[in-house]
Amino acid sequence: MADKNLRFLVVDDFSTMRRIVRNLLKELGFTNVDEAEDGQVALHKLKTQHFDFVVSDWNMPNMTGIELLKAVRADQQLKPLPFLMITAEAKRENIIEAAMAGASGYIVKPFTAATLEEKLNKIFQAINK
Amino acid sequence: MSEFGGMEELLQDFLMESNDLLSDVDNKLVELEKRPEDRALLNDIFRGFHTIKGGAGFLNVAPMVTLCHRTENLFDKLRNAELQLNPEVMDVILDATASVRDMFGTLGQGLMPRDADGALLAALDAVLSGRMPQAPVPQATPATPPVASAPQRSDEPDWNSLYQAVVPAARTTTPTAPAPAPVEVVPAAALVPETEPVTAVAAASRAAAPAKNVTASKSASGGGHENTIRIDTNRLDMVLNLSGEIGLTKNRLTTLRTEILQGNNDSNTLRSLDEAISQLDLLVGDLQNAVMKTRMQPIGRLFQKYPRLARDLARQLGKDVELVLSGEETELDKTMIEDLNDPLVHLVRNAVDHGVESTAERIAAGKKPQSLIQLTAEQVGDHILIEITDDGRGMNADALRRKAVEKGLIDTEAANALDEKQCLQLIFLPGFSTKDQISSVSGRGVGMDVVRTNIQKLNGRIDINSIPGEGTRISISLPLTLAILPVLVVRACNQPFAVPLAMVREIITIDPEAIQEVSGNPTIVVRDEILPLKTLAGLLGWAPTQKPGFGVLMQSAERSFILAIDSFVGRDDVVIKPLQNIRPKGVAGATLSGDGSVVLVLDMEDLLTAKDGVSGMVKTSELITI
Known about the structure:
Chain B: One of its GO terms (biological process) is chemotaxis. Chain B: Residues 3-107 form the HPt domain. Chain B: Residues 133-157 are annotated as: Disordered. Chain A is α/β, with parallel strands linked by helices. Chain A has a single domain, classed as Response regulator (Rossmann fold, 3-Layer(aba) Sandwich), CATH 3.40.50.2300. Chain A has five helices and five strands; from the N terminus they run βαβαβαβαβα. A five-stranded parallel sheet of chain A has the order 2-1-3-4-5, with helices on both faces. Chain A is globular. Chain B is of the alpha+beta class. Chain B folds into four domains: 8-150 and 191-208, HPT domain (Four Helix Bundle (Hemerythrin (Met), subunit A)), CATH 1.20.120; 233-294; 298-395 and 434-479, Heat Shock Protein 90; 485-624, CATH 2.40.50.180. Helices cover 46% and strands 18% of the residues of chain B. Chain B has a six-stranded mixed sheet. In chain B, strands 2-4-5-7-6 form a five-stranded mixed sheet. In chain B, strands 16-8-9-18-17 form a five-stranded mixed sheet. The two termini of chain B are 51 Å apart. Classes of the chains: A alpha/beta, B alpha+beta. Chain A binds chain B through residues 13-17, 19-20, 23, 57, 59-61, 88, 90-93, 95-97, 99-100, 102-103, 105-112, 115, 118-119, 122, 126, and chain B through 10, 13-14, 17-18, 21, 44, 47, 50-51, 53-55, 57-58, 60, 143, 147, 151-154, 156-157, 159-160, 162-163, 166-167, 170, 175-176, 178-179, 182-183, 192-195, 197-198.
């Protein structure tokens, strides 16, 4: 079981969606959550504060989720950070793109707390292997 | 009644945010008509629908997911240049936007919206499949099918193998090339549960589409009042800080009270008391301000709906109109913003319908073919000034005068006595319509007087300026908030009364010599303007206790007059409390003065009409003295 004190960063330009994800995480027992409204803000937060997990939307202004993911993977410090990509896109090329950019997982909207938990656990398992 | 048990709060958030988003999309669509190739715009609109879809998905609003999904796909094709934007496609997009807005309206009532109009979904499908004028570029097709096909969905273990499979390949190949291979590793897994709703919805609505033919009402859902408000957390912190400090000051006062009650009232204690009270005074003032600020919202939230409104109407009328906004960041009390919507919608419609000319007329008059309507807001002192200016044909004073007489709203004599500015005010009379034919969009003659009444309810004023051939400007002046009313406290018959400061133009001393009788009514000439003199005692129906010494020059939209009073107390910011059960004519409510006595706040319009009832002629004679 994952440490409930893990610090999450939820990245989405739509505040309702951030709230939804935050609520779902809370349902799973993760209460240490911060938010960012786009990739740029997220990257700044990631570089200045400590986070254990990023849950990011794909489609955002200024800096998209995939750009954020690439920036995270290109950064020596942030590189190992687990990164779950959320999106409404379930297109094949998107999944491929996310995978190639180094996403740790991919979840399609809308999803339930159970699905989120399942995805998170897979990622935790992969890390602990 | 709600079908969203347990999710109402989330729903409210979603609606508020999505409404803003959709208004933004609406405006971008208007922009897009001018710059159909603009990638950034197309991207933004795409993201708008995408985001709404995402939120709707979590709320299980299937009809909205379906509709947004298709519209989003359409924009995906547009931004990838697989489709060309043309008027037909634009119409479909606008219909889709209107339909989404209707669904917001339904959701706002806590109900699940019905599926979008079958014809609309069919039209979207037609555009997507290239049956509309422009054929899509062939390779686009595989990209579009919604989330339906199974192979691309993977269960978690497959994600890892997929990841493993793809990452090494990425070094040597282009992103698209390795796609088929790794994905084929995956398909063993069944559909991931979370995608089912979407797929099912798409299928269900496709089946249902031909059967249903409910035409969505085009009316915007802006009517109802929102019960939630978004507040900058800094502002909320300010309120919290201030209430904390007030608590501390209260503690200090309590201590001081104990000391004083124990007989300790030396100069030190009294000075401390004085300090504490001064501080409390300051803090309460700040707190009032801070609380008021939490209710302040940028007027842009209202304005942003209008470019689309103007565009649609102009298109319907065959006119070319651009509505330009400025000052959207100007802040106004939330309730006022909501109550301003109807008057502003009316004024924007009026400007497009009556104000500006058709393209042909404009060219004939040597004007630029496209007409310009400006909607501006700015804070001027403690007031907000909203102006709507068009560069249209302007208003003809003579025509207005004739019309008012024809309609029997005023008699010829009164009409001839009106100057040009006063003629413009005629459009505010109930039953006045400047157009001969009643059009479907505006001009039922119920308009402008209702607009003015609404503005007055907000303690505001409305004014018109117009130059024939050059255009019309309508100015609305509003107080920042309704919660706190600045008043002038005056005395008459040994009693204090408060009159709204917004109506006070100036204060004069009354020289009994200067009072002249005009047809039996006392008047005073102030800078060449003949103004009727009304004593407050007289208006109240009381016997005067002394000769009035001062006059307050009051101005409302309809009339100016001098209110004769005995003396002044001063200006004050008061909170009006309505009187329970009784409603004396001319009294808006009551407030407490500094010494704890009750002060009646007068409603001047009400007080004057009470008197107008006595003689029928007063009204027209007062109209002349505007």
